[in-house]
Amino acid sequence: MSHAAEGASVHTASSPNTMVNFGFWVYLMSDVIIFSMLFTMFVTVQSHYNGGPQGHQIFELRDVFLETMALLFSSITFGLAMLNLHAEKKNGVLLWLAITFLFGATFVGLEVREFLNLVHHGAGPDTSAFLSAFFTLVGTHGTHVTFGLIWIAVMFGQVAVKGISPKVGSRLFRLSLFWHFLDIVWIVVFSTVYLAGVVQ
Amino acid sequence: MDILGKLTLQSIPYDNPILMFAGAIMIGTAIAVLAGVTYFGKWKYLYTEWLTTVDHKKIGVMYLIIAFIFLLRGFIDALMMRAQQAFASGGSEGYLPPHHFAELFTGHGTMMIFFMGMPFLIGLMNIAVPTQIGARDVAFPYLNAVSLWLTASAGMLVMASLIIGSFSDAGWTGYAPYSGISANPGVGVDYWIWALQISGIGTTITGINFFVTIMRERAPGMKFMRMPLFTWTTLCTNILMVLAFPALTVVLALLTFDRYLGMHFFTSDGGGNQMMFINMFWVWGHPEVYILILPAFGVFSEVAATFSNKRLFGYVSMVGATMVIALLSFTVWVHHFFTMAQDPLRNSIFAIATMVIGVPTGVKIYDWIFTMYRGRVRFNLPMLWLIGFIITFTIGGMTGVMLAIPGIDFKMHNSEFLVAHFHNVLIPGMLFGLFAGYHYWFPKAFGFRLDEKWGRRSFWGWLIGFYVAFMPLYVLGLMGMPRRMVSYADPAWQPFLIVAAFGALIVLFGVVSMAIQLIVSVRNREQLRDITGDPWNGRTLDWATSSPPAHYNFAVIPTVEDIDAFTDMKERGVAYRRPDKYEDIEMPRSTPAALVIGALSFFLGFALIWHIWWLAAVTGVGIIVTVIVRGCNDNTWYTIPAEEVERTENEWFRQLEKAGVV
C-alpha cells in the first residue's frame, strides 16, 4: 500500500481499513489489557476496606449518573462531528467538537470533584487497598479522557487552521475511536465499581 | 522543597572503589566516543544519518549497539558474582558486601533481559523483517525511532544508577513487599521501575508497529503461508508484546503508586495483596520468555534451511508450533510460583500446560534436524550456533519438564538448579540464536562478512564455557544450594563453584574473541566484502537486495510465488531483473522528534527517581508538546526521484556484473 495514496479523500482516509487506523485499533487492544488488569486488581481487593469506608458509604450515584450522561452525550456529539466531517462542513465539525469538549470537561470536572471530596473526608487512595484500586482504575480512565480532551483541542485547532483535509479527517477518525472506546470502558467502570459497590 | 529532590553529593558512592572504577571506565568511554566524534568532525553525519533517522536498517544497527553494550555490562556482573561465590565459603565473606551482591544479581537479570535480549532481537527484526517481506520500511517508521530512543533512554537510566545512587537489590522480578517503600526506601527500586517502564512502553510500540507491518506491508503474492519463518516468529512475538507488555506497565505503575503515593496494592498492611504482584508480573513474564525465544527460533529456521541448501523441513508444522507456543505462553504463568499456596488442582493444570508446551518445541527441534538430514550442510558460523543450540537447549528443556512437576519444584525452586535451568534454555535458546542472526545478517547490514576464525574461537568459548559454568549449578541445586547467596557455610559447595567460575572465564574467552572478531573483520572488510548482497546463497527476499540495501530496499517491489521466494526467483531466472523504467519512491523523512522524546524521557525518569518534581513537570509537558507538534506535521514523506533510484541501482548492477551474477 502506498503511503502517498493513503487518504486520497476524507472518506477513504477515515475508513477503518487504512494502515494507520489499523495500527490504532491494535493500540486500543493493548489499552484493553491495561484496563482489564486494573479491573482484575480492583475486583481482587474490592472488599479489603482496612477499616475504611465501603463503596455504598462514599459513592454518590447522582454525580456518577451525571458523569455517565456527560460522557454518553459526548459520544453522540462526537458522532455528529464525524457526520459533519463526511459532509465536509468545517463549521459543523468545529461546533460539535467544541460541544464534545465541554461534555468531556464536565465529566473530568465531576470526577475531580468526587476525588477531592473523598480525600477531604479521609477516604484518600492511601486509606485501603479498596480505595487504592478505586482511585487508580477510575483515575486511569479519567486520565485517558483528559488526554482525549487535549487531543480534541489539538484537532479543533487543526480543523480551524487547515480545514478539512484527508489527513485531518483521518486523525479525527482515530480520535473518535479513542473517544468511543473510553465510553465503553466507562460503562464497565460504572457497572463494576459504582453499581456493584452500592448494591453490596 | 529542595530543588534537586533527594539528590545530594552523598548519592555518589565514593566509598565503593569497585563502583567508582566502573563509573570511571563508563564515563571515560563516553568521553572518548564524544571526543572521537568531535575530532573526526562527524557530528553532522551522526545527527543527520543516525540520530534522527527513521530507516529501519539503521535503527536495527543502533539496537544492536545497545545490546552489545549491555551484554558486556551484564557479563561483567556475572563474572563478579561467580568470583564472589568461588571465594565466599565456610566463613569467608568474599570481596562483595551483601547489598552490592544483590544489586549485581538484580542488575544482571534486568540488563540481560531488557537491555541485551530485547534490543538484540528487536534489532534483528528491524534489519531483516522489512526486507524479508519485500517492504520499503516498517508501517510506522517514526514510531520505530521513538521505540529505539525510549529503549536507549531507559538504558541510560540503568547506566546512571551505577554512579548516582544505586540500583535495585530486589531481584530482577522485584517482588513486593520487599520492593515496597517500607522495606526498600532507597532509589534503587525506582531506577528499576522507571527503566523498565520506559523501555516497556517502547517495546509495546514496537509490537504494534511490527504486527501492522507484517499484516499490511507484505509484497504481493506473499500469503501468510509463504512468509519466511523469521517473519512468522516475529509476528507471534509482536502479538505477545502487544498483549503482554501492558500487564508489565500496569504492575509497575501499581508498585509506583504504592511507593510514591502510599497506596496499598502490594503492601503488607492496608489490605494489600502481594500475590497479585507475582501473578500480574508473570502474566507478562511468561509470555516474555517466548518473546525472547521465538525470534531466535525464527533465526534458526532461516539458518537451517539456508546452510543445508534445502527447503525447511515441515514448514507448516513449524508455523503451527510457533502459533501454539505463542498461545500456550499465556497459560503457564503459575509455574513460576508453584510453592505459593495454590490448591493442588490449580498447580496440576498449570503443570500440564507447562509440559504440553514442550511438545511444539520438540516438533521444532525435529524439524531443524530433518532440515539438515540429507542436506548439503555448510558449517559457517550461523550453523555452528544452531548445532550448539540444538544439543544444549534440549538438555535445558528436559530440566524444564522436571521443574514443571510441582512435587519436584517444591524441592528445587529457588535453588541453583533453577538458575542452571533457565540459563540452560535462555543462553542457547535466545543468545545463541541472536548470535546466529548476528553472524547471518551482519553482511546484509554492513556489506561485509564477519571473520570465521575468531568466530569459531568465540563459539567454542561460549559453548564449552557454558557447560563448565552451568552444569555444576545443577549439581549444587541437587545438593541444596539456594540461589542468590552472597556467602555460604557448606564447604562441600565450593569446588563446584570454583569450576563454575572457571567456566565463566572460558565464556570470557568467547566474549573477547567476539570483540576481536569484530575488529579483525572491520580491518579485513575488503576481503570479506559482500558484493552481490547474497553471501550465503540465501532463500528469502532479504538476500535479493544489495548489502547494505539501498535506502528504499527495493526499487521495484518483488512478487512472491513461493515460500523460499528468492530461491524460487533464482531458479526461474527472474532474480535481479531490471524494470523497463524506474519510478519515484516515497520514503519517510528523518525527524528529531523521536530523539527529543527519548532524551526528555530520560530526564523525566531521572526526575521521578530523585523526586525532582519541577523537572518531571517540565519534561512531561515537553514530551506532550513534542508529540503534538509532530502530530500536526503533514509533511512527513519525501520523494526519491526515479533518476536517483536508477543511479543507485546501476551502481549495484555494475557490481553484480563484476561478480558474474547477471
Structural summary, described in words:
The complex is a heterodimer of chains A (200) and B (662). With 200 residues, chain A is an all-alpha fold. Chain A has one domain (3-199): Four Helix Bundle (Hemerythrin (Met), subunit A). Chain A contains 7 helices and no strands. In chain A, helix 2 (19-45) packs antiparallel against helix 6, helix 4 packs antiparallel against helix 7 (166-199) and helix 6 runs antiparallel to helix 7. The longest helix of chain A is centred in the last third of the chain and has 34 residues, at 129-162. The radius of gyration of chain A is 19 Å and the shape is elongated. The relative contact order of chain A is 0.18. Chain B has 662 residues and is mostly helical. Chain B contains 20 helices and 2 strands. Chain B has helices spanning 17-39, 43-51, 56-87, 98-132, 141-163, 188-216, 229-261, 274-307, 315-328, 344-356, 358-372, 381-403, 406-412, 416-446, 452-479, 494-523, 565-572, 593-609, 613-631, 642-658; strands spanning 585-588, 637-640. Chain B has a two-stranded antiparallel ribbon. In chain B, helix 18 packs antiparallel against helix 19 (613-631). The longest helix of chain B has 35 residues, at 98-132. The radius of gyration of chain B is 25 Å and the shape is globular. The N and C termini of chain B lie far apart (72 Å). The mean pLDDT of chain B is 96. The A-B interface holds A 1-4, 19-20, 22-23, 26-27, 29-31, 33-34, 37-38, 40-41, 44-45, 48-50, 125-130, 132-133, 135-136, 150, 154, 157-158, 162, 165, 167, 171 and B 139-140, 204, 207-209, 211-212, 215-217, 242-247, 249-251, 253-254, 257-258, 261-265, 269-273, 276, 280, 283, 586, 588, 624, 628, 631-632, 634, 637.
Helix/strand layout:
The complex is a heterodimer of chains A (200) and B (662).
Chain A: H1 10-13, H2 19-45, H3 55-58, H4 61-86, H5 90-120, H6 129-162, H7 166-199
Helix pairs in contact in A: 2-6, 2-7, 4-5, 4-7, 5-6, 6-7
Chain B: H1 17-39, H2 43-51, H3 56-87, H4 98-132, H5 141-163, H6 188-216, H7 229-261, H8 274-307, H9 315-328, H10 344-356, H11 358-372, H12 381-403, H13 406-412, H14 416-446, H15 452-479, H16 494-523, H17 565-572, E1 585-588, H18 593-609, H19 613-631, E2 637-640, H20 642-658
Antiparallel strand pairs in B: 1-2
Helix pairs in contact in B: 3-4, 3-5, 3-16, 4-5, 4-6, 4-8, 4-14, 5-6, 5-18, 6-7, 6-18, 7-8, 7-9, 8-11, 8-14, 9-11, 11-12, 12-14, 12-15, 14-15, 15-16, 18-19
